[in-house]
Amino acid sequence: MTDPRYPVRSFPPALGAASEARRFVAGAVGDLGHPEMAEDAALITSELATNAVRHADSEFVVVVTPDDGGVCISVWDSAPGAPGPRDAQLHDTSGRGLRLVSQMSERWGAEPLSGGKVVWACLNPNQSWPEQS
């Protein structure tokens, strides 16, 4: 499932776990030599971890790996089905997380697994932010 050389941690299905996952990833990204990406990686992790807690309601595992000069964050949970961005309305209090992940990461995706799925996002220190209209 994971490579023992890279940071891995399990979290319980509790909303406070997203904060713990965010701190874990910020530290791991720094340890992998990319402290300049720690804040963005932490925000992406918060969105992915929150989705795991809200929709899978199961323990989730966070893995941080190096990737082509940057890092990838993977969140494994036990819920089947791939998530997708929603079209949140102006007054909605949720539903924007995966759009944020899409905008902040170089690439992201989800893959089904036996007993669940993994949702991942990769950041590159040289990526540029999309133009805002």
Please provide a written account of the structure.
The radius of gyration is 14 Å and the shape is globular. The longest helix is centred in the middle third of the chain and has 19 residues, at 38-56. Helix 1 (16-31) packs antiparallel against helix 2 (38-56). The chain is 32% helix and 26% strand. The chain is built from 3 helices and 5 strands, in the order E-H-H-E-E-H-E-E. By secondary structure, it is α+β, with helices and mostly antiparallel strands. The model has no long low-confidence stretch (mean pLDDT 83). The N and C termini lie far apart (41 Å). The protein has helices at 16-31, 38-56, 97-104, and strands spanning 8-11, 60-67, 70-77, 107-113, 116-123. The protein has one domain (8-123): Histidine kinase-like ATPase, C-terminal domain (Heat Shock Protein 90, 2-Layer Sandwich). A 5-stranded antiparallel sheet has the order 1-2-3-5-4.
Keywords:
Heat Shock Protein 90; alpha+beta; 133 residues; 5 strands; five-stranded antiparallel sheet; single chain; 3 helices
Describe this structure in a few short sentences.
It contains 3 helices and 5 strands. The protein is of the alpha+beta class.
Secondary structure topology:
Layout lengths: L7 E4 L4 H16 L6 H19 L3 E8 L2 E8 L19 H8 L2 E7 L2 E8 L10
Antiparallel strand pairs: 1-2, 2-3, 3-5, 4-5
Helix pairs in contact: 1-2, 2-3
Largest sheet: 5 strands, antiparallel
For the terminal residues, how far apart are their CA atoms? 41 Å
What's the domain count?
1
Cα Rg: 14 Å
Q: What is the topology, as strand order, of the major beta sheet? A: 1-2-3-5-4
The CATH class:
Alpha Beta
**Low-pLDDT regions:** none
Q: What would CATH call the homologous superfamily? A: Histidine kinase-like ATPase, C-terminal domain
Portion of residues in beta strands equals 25-35%
Give me the count of strands.
Answer: 5
Helix content: 25-40%
Oligomer: single chain
What structural category characterises the helix and strand content?
A: alpha+beta
Average pLDDT for all residues = 83
- How many helix segments? 3
CATH architecture: 2-Layer Sandwich
Listing every helix as H and every strand as E from the N terminus to the C terminus, the arrangement reads EHHEEHEE
Q: Any idea of the CATH topology? A: Heat Shock Protein 90
